[in-house]
Each structure stands twice: as C-alpha cells, then as structure tokens.
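Bench notes, afternoon.
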Amino acid sequence: MEQILSKYTASISELKKNPTALLREAAGEPVAILNHNRPAAYLVPADVYEAMLEAIEDQELAEIVRKRLEEGETPIDVNIDEL
C-alpha cells in the first residue's frame, strides 16, 4: 500500500469536474489525486509550488557552498547593501 502524503484526496473524476473547488476546499493544502485508490499526482496551489521550488533551489545552492568549502575555497565576506 502506498502512503498518501496529504490530508485531502480526490479522484481523477472529481478533479475533472471542478479543480477550483478542490483547491478551495483544501484551503491551501495539497490534494492527493487518486487513480484506482492510489496516488497518481498531487494538486497544490501555485504559491505552495513556487515555495517548494524556491526551497529546492536554496538546498541546491547550499550544497554547492558545502562542496566548495570542502574543496578548500575561502569564503568571502559580502555586504548585501554594497552589491
């Protein structure tokens, strides 16, 4: 059995009928879209998706910094106001 990573679920048929209503009912939470009672996709509001992408990008940048520090690069102090 697959884990459903959402408090809200809907079938693909329900999604086809009224996707806006699903988002409204979930009040900003993700909705697991089920196909034969198995998660096929997750429907998330645009602002949640954008925040997820930003968090992933931040993690990728942090990994680049860690690797460069491990390779012996010296950090440089920068004042954001001077950029």
